[in-house]
Amino acid sequence: MSFFDKIREGLKKTKEAAGGQLNAVLANFRSVDEELLEDLEDAMVMADMGAALAAETTEELRQRAKLDNLQTREQVVDALCDILAARMTQSDGLRLSTRPSVILVVGVNGVGKTTTIGKLGQKLAEQGKKVLFAAADTFRAAAADQLTVWSGRCGADIVRHSEGADPSAVIFDALSAAKARKVDVVICDTAGRLHNKQNLMNELSKMNRVIERELPDADRETLLVLDATTGQNALVQADAFNEAAHLTGVVITKLDGTAKGGIAINVSSRLGVPVQYIGVGEKAEDLLEFDAREFVRAFFE
After folding, report:
1. Which of 23, 191, 226, 297 is most buried, most CB within 10 Å of its CB?
2. Which residues are 289's β-sheet partners?
3. pTM of the full structure
4. Crossing angle of helices 51-68/263-271, nearest 10°?
């Protein structure tokens, strides 16, 4: 199955709801008039792109229709895809050129952080990189055990402490081990921090200080994992984590289980950081590198 086919299949529920409405609006296309623009705006809101983004996109389409004299459905779809893709921060892939490089993975409980780390570790291992997992979620009893299972699957090293240990101490030991073992990438799991718990956000800042002190010149990525099924609530989480952790990218999970696929566009536009991966299934190969244009195009196919 090609990347586009996986995107299209993963967005099946979004396509059936919002995409279906977008295509229904355009099915009997005659001209870009106010009725069409209003219907398109409503369909984008339904897809969880957000009212503000939908309104801005509609206005830009209105202007482009005048400037470029859009006269066919295909021209309107192309223009919409261009506008929406341009709203998103484009990804050049993860920056992992130093040895070691560090990926810090953050997010609230239940979004799929640990599973995402396992899938990402497997992808990097398949690229020939030596990976080490830092099991710094010391609050959830099964987190380190789950990460240990993934380390066995993909041949990654793992550093873990006992339940309730200081997460920053886990990070310190993991970085020390990475330097000694010539590891390429350290992927750090973190506890499912609630966005309104300031003490847990402070702990995240502490971990960042450890990384900065131990590997000041290393390439670093801070990825926020968001559950697409939470819709607009994901934006609240994204804003809080971006303030606390200075995000470099987002991973959207469970896109195959929701009609709210437009949240990926909304989050990237709002934060000004790229969506790096999307999850459209349970297998490691279902964690897909994100392509904004193909993602948007899937709404109309």
Report:
1. 226
2. 277
3. 0.90
4. 90
